[in-house]
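Quick start: read one record
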Amino acid sequence: MATVTRRTFRSSPHRDALTTWAAISDLLTRTNIGAQQELGSVAGIASSIIADKACKNSPIIVSSEGPQTRIYCLYDDEAIDGSDANEEVLGFDPLNGDWSISLPCEPDDLDWVQSALKQKGERITARDRTDAKKQDTANSSQGAALEIDLEGLLKP
């Protein structure tokens, strides 16, 4: 079973989409300076996705040799309030080894976003934002079922 870490960033109107991507990039590249340039090269594309609020219910998924990191964004009143935000530093390198980032995208924008990202590299891709729910369901159904031995538990 894979370990998953969640972070939630305050976006518009607390900060604009480009500044939100910069904050996310800073979190991800804190221990991996080499990845800063690659994340910076897609800043315009990623900020467009953030501005479209695609990250509200579908996460940016960061996969590597360590735990998977899922990043959501808060918008409107939730972003101003900030009580649900968690922008704390991770206790591991989220871009360790062979890493990839999957950005959620509005279905209407998916073709141009995938094409633009492909020109920047192979590690950062886009997916239909509705696919995250399908993936979450698939991951939870593949997990091991918990079985409790009630007889053994209740023995004196």
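Confidence is low (pLDDT under 50) at residues 132-145.
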